[in-house]
Predict the structure.
Amino acid sequence: MSKGIIYCGVISSLAFLLYLGSTGLIDETEPLFAEAAKGMFTTGDWITPYFNGETRFDKPPLVYWGMAIAFHLFGVNTWGVRLPSALGAIALTFLSFYTVLRFHKHSAWLVPGIISFNFYSLAWGRIGVSDMLLSAGMGCGLLCFFNGYADAPQSSKNRSLWQFPSLWYVGSAVSLALAVLAKGPVGVVLPGLIILTFLLYVGKFKIVVQEIGIIWFTLIFLVISVPWFVLIIQRHSDYVETFFGYHNLRRFTEVVSNHPGPWYYYFIVLLILFIPWSLYLPGAIANTQFWRRRFWSQQSPEEQLLLFACIWLMVIFVFFSISSTKLPSYI
């Protein structure tokens, strides 16, 4: 296992840390995040993000907090702006490697390279915006869930909604809460849809709701994710309409900022930005034979990782294909 940690660390560090701050801030979005984080760093106001003296309610605070902490530790520089995204990408790479090593050992050594070296990961893992933190929070939350699901005895005996979750389920609750603090409700809505679809498909919904300790799971999630939203709403009465109304609901139901796209938009995006691995994706999906519901429901939990991954991909793909506003980073 130690060799695996070193191997994964080398691959992910080369991908996400090497020359991380060697170029200036790019596009118009990265400077917006950087300046808002710098404002938190200089003023000590960790609640409200500002840009040029005006509130910036586009995203929740996690990315600003990460950058501001990096500024405290390493100074105000481009490297610090991008470090939170890089660390999120590295965390997701490690947990993906561990999970595949555990359940599909023969494929695990490909995982760090596949996850780290594609246009998607290299672009958003090396830029100071919130997308990789959302991806890492959601991804780690789903992987923690699956590890907990595979560890738990598949029996409803002696189960209670009030039982305290296993460490894997605690990790899932914490990760999903951080995903919400990275980009809002989508950080829990999408993983929730993925988990719900998977459990209903394999017929394990009732059992897992009991074994997960859903009440404690929910409390852990809420304790981490909710307080900042309460504070920002108390301080700024227009936050609900601006963030939840415009930046979430309207982006899904209407075309915002002139970013439309046809129904096949993400087929093209995924093919190009995940190349060369996207060339293997149709065959990989077909190889799961996900349509064989009876077969998959009879498999042991540790054998269901391929189905879980397939449902994970499909739910995200369909969700954002339905969305009126489309951007490459959404999936």
Summary: DSSP finds 16 helices and two strands in the chain.
